[in-house]
Design a protein that fits this description.
Layout: H1 3-11, E1 15-20, H2 24-35, E2 40-46, H3 49-58, E3 63-67, H4 75-85, E4 90-95, H5 99-110, E5 115-118, H6 129-145, E6 184-188, H7 192-201, E7 211-215, H8 221-233, E8 237-239, E9 251-253, E10 259-265, E11 268-274, H9 286-297, E12 302-305, H10 314-322, E13 327-330, H11 340-346, E14 352-354, H12 356-367
Parallel strand pairs: 1-2, 1-3, 3-4, 4-5, 6-7, 6-12, 7-9, 8-9, 12-13, 13-14
Antiparallel strand pairs: 10-11
Helix pairs in contact: 3-4, 4-5, 7-8, 7-12, 9-10
């Protein structure tokens, strides 16, 4: 962690967290990780969803780490009840990597959870460094992503919340060179699954090119997400396999634990999967996809950066922008976390920064040659 980031974390109001898990061992381990971080206060713990709803009704909270499988009330059932108590809560679903839990976690995102966290087995949780890093990063990213309330000195007394917001710096847009994009590439992370489903369900028929997606997500989860996208978009969507031909109108999702690139094989365009080291702590990462698209298509590709924490995809977007490709970023107000889209927007690489609901319309213009 940089000194600047550490100082910012300590100088901001602490993020108030509740940990909900039916395993006392897992609860204790998560609490110890978070309590060692300046800027995070664990203010409540409990063992099931019903208790979590009761705590949320009387405790000021920013982030909840919520187990999926619990007695009395499971995590999926608890999500809408927690958000009914406090619509501003950021809920992170913590689940082991099973196909069933992947499906439940994605359903929880559809019900309003902000993110998910792959949870190691109880025996391996104390030694898993990736889990520690991801847990802390998600809590900070989500806890800081919303306007912070001004809290009274006595936080045990619930009082009206007054929101303070910082003014955003003006975004400088650039002009895209005229092009006929041969592919659409999309990067996303925190909040991405629901953003992808919303965008791709509205994708216009004029986007009759391969659509390639790098979403930060572990194996098992990506296969389930591909099924959700196919149903919503009414287009074929699959986890990419190495060497698969990129067909027009089809959607290809980078599988968990693999980078996805685009390449040429004779006259065909294909996907290449690699397990080269993670980039920006991610595999799949957005950067390899965007870089390879720039090398293969030059300016004749369109890129969209959706909600996500961090700045993955920034270097790949620089290459696309230098080639004149159109680049659209989701705006701050509609993003769960304005990290990845904010990074490319703040760098002046975008041709448009739009609310999620308006991106499909902009793509219609781009892929129809500028005609509405």
């Amino acid at each position: 962690m940089s000194l600047t980031v550490a100082t910012a974390r300590q100088s901001s109001p602490p993020i108030r967290v509740m940990v909900v898990d039916d395993s006392a061992v897992v609860r204790g381990f998560i609490v110890r990780i978070l309590e060692n971080e300046p800027g995070i206060d664990v203010v409540a713990t409990c063992g099931n969803g019903q208790m979590a709803v009761q705590h949320a009704a009387r405790t000021q909270l920013d982030v909840i780490i919520l187990d999926v499988e619990m007695p009395v009330m499971d995590g999926l059932t608890a999500v809408p009840k927690l958000l009914a108590v406090n619509p501003h809560l950021r809920i992170v679903m913590a689940s082991t990597l099973t196909q069933r839990n992947a499906g439940v976690s994605l359903e929880a995102l559809a019900r309003g959870a902000a993110d998910y966290l792959p949870k190691p087995t109880t025996s391996g949780i104390s030694t898993n460094g990736d889990f520690r890093r991801e847990l802390v990063e998600k809590v900070f990213a989500l806890g800081r992503s919303m306007p912070r309330p001004v809290r009274p000195a006595d936080t045990s007394v619930r009082q009206p919340i007054h929101v303070t917001q910082k003014a955003s710096a003006p975004i400088q847009l650039r002009h895209a060179a005229p092009s006929r994009p041969q592919a659409l590439v999309i990067g996303s992370s925190t909040g991405g699954p629901q953003a992808l489903i919303t965008l791709l369900a509205a994708l216009p028929p004029s986007v009759n090119v391969p659509v390639l997606i790098a979403q930060h997500m572990p194996a098992t989860f990506t296969a389930i997400l591909a099924q959700h996208i196919a149903r919503a978009a009414n287009r074929p969507c699959t986890e990419a396999s190495n060497g698969i031909e990129l067909r027009a109108g089809a959607i290809f999702l980078a599988p968990g634990d693999f980078h996805m690139e685009v390449a040429r094989d004779g006259t065909a365009h294909i996907a290449r999967l690699t397990q080269t080291p993670p980039e920006n702590f991610c595999r799949p990462s957005v950067d390899p996809l965007f870089r390879s698209a720039g090398r293969l298509f030059g300016g004749d590709v369109c890129a969209v950066m959706l909600t996500g924490m961090g700045s993955d995809g920034l270097s790949g977007t620089r290459l696309l922008a230098a080639a004149g490709a159109p680049v659209i970023a989701q705006d701050e107000a509609s993003s769960v976390v304005w990290g990845m889209p904010g990074a490319v927007a703040s760098a002046g690489l975008c041709t448009a920064v739009l609310p999620l609901k308006d991106i499909a319309g902009q793509l219609a213009i781009i892929f129809s040659g500028g005609r509405r």
